[in-house]
From TrEMBL:
Organism of derivation: Phytophthora oleae
UniProt keyword terms in alphabetical order: Coiled coil
Sections of the chain in a coiled coil: 101-163, 196-230
Protein name: Kinetochore protein SPC25
Positions of region (Disordered): 1-23
Domain of life: Eukaryota
Organism placement in taxonomy: Eukaryota, Sar, Stramenopiles, Oomycota, Peronosporomycetes
Length: 350
């Protein structure tokens, strides 16, 4: 009996298994065993030979595996399409970028306005300080004028006191002289009353003037104290501004030195790369030079005369006795380094 082709359908359990994702190994083995048992039973019913049944079974398993892979591939593509559908369009991204750019420009304009406002406030503060300084100078001049006038008023008060004392003494002497000369007590009450009234008015005027001068002295002292406080405040502000200027100048000098150092290091690197000579160490009595990054030599010089005294080779593998003799004799360091570099280059080329 000829073997008939048996179409192996894909079980529903397989599709559900692929849709649900990977399951436990025991469940997978149980499912494979049941599926193979069912397939073998169907083959027996069709009177298939064992070889044909085995071949059809292998073919069915290959188809099952291919269907599983195809399902996984389609599922991955579907997931990718779902994710791509969530990505924003180019137009939306451009709108977002434009919005963010507008926000950044608005922030920049705000900061620019704030900076301009700060500059304006600083200029106003400087003008205010200048005006306060002028006012302080004016107050200082007024204080000096009041000080000079105070001394004059005090002198005038002292002079008036002396005059009053002299008048009192003169009246006493006059009264005593009259009484001694006449031997009679003064009985003219009108004369005494007029003299007394005049002296009383003079005394009252002097007391009033003295009180006025004392009040002026107190006012002047108060103004002097106020002016001194203003001068101290302005001096402190000037000190702070001068300190800020000194700090800025030091920072600027430091940046300038850093730039000069950077330029010097750059030029030195270029010079070393072009000449092949690199100064590696500078001591009190010698200078160590590396030639073509392979040989090092020390040049010993007199610290006072800077004259070359002797040469020490840290790697003495190049014949240089004649160069050392000429260099020490003529004090020609440039000649020695150039000739030694050429001989090192020849040595390296061997």
């Amino acid at each position: 009996m000829e073997a008939e082709d048996v179409e192996v359908p894909v079980p529903v359990q397989v599709q559900e298994h692929e849709a649900d994702g990977p399951q436990d190994d025991a469940v997978q083995q149980q499912f494979d065993a049941l599926y193979m048992a069912k397939l073998l039973g169907k083959l027996r019913n069709n009177d298939k030979k064992p070889e044909a049944a085995a071949e059809e079974l292998q073919d069915a398993l290959r188809k099952l595996h291919a269907l599983q892979q195809a399902f996984v591939t389609k599922q991955a593509k579907q997931n990718l399409l779902d994710r791509l559908a969530q990505v924003e369009t180019l137009e939306a991204l451009q709108k977002v970028a434009a919005s963010r750019k507008a926000q950044v420009e608005a922030g920049y304009d705000q900061e620019k306005r704030e900076l301009q406002k700060a500059v304006t406030e600083r200029e106003d503060a400087l003008r205010l300080l200048e005006r306060l300084a002028d006012e302080v100078q004016q107050e200082k001049r007024k204080v000096l004028e009041h000080e000079r006038s105070r001394q004059a008023h005090e002198a005038e008060v002292a002079q008036l006191n002396e005059v009053w004392k002299a008048i009192q003494k003169k009246n006493a002497h006059r009264k005593a002289a009259v009484q001694v000369a006449t031997g009679v007590m003064i009985t003219d009450e009108e004369d005494c009353g007029r003299v007394l009234d005049l002296q009383t008015r003079s005394i009252q005027e002097m007391h009033q003037k003295q009180k006025q001068l004392e009040d002026e002295k107190i006012d002047i002292s108060t103004q002097v104290k106020r002016a001194k406080r203003k001068i101290e405040d302005v001096s402190k502000q000037n000190d702070l501004r001068s300190k800020d200027a000194e700090v800025k100048q030091r920072e600027q000098d430091y940046m300038t030195l850093q730039q000069m150092k950077k330029w010097y290091d750059h030029i030195r690197t270029i010079h070393e790369s072009l000449s092949g000579l690199e100064i590696t160490n500078v001591a009190d009595d010698y200078l160590e030079v590396r030639v073509l990054k392979s040989r090092s030599v020390r040049l010993y010089c007199d610290p006072e005369t800077t004259r070359l005294q002797r040469v020490q080779f840290l790697t003495p593998d190049v014949a240089t006795a004649d160069l050392v003799e000429v260099a020490v004799r003529d004090n020609n360091v440039q000649y020695f380094l150039c000739e030694y570099r050429e001989r090192v280059r020849e040595q390296l080329a061997l």
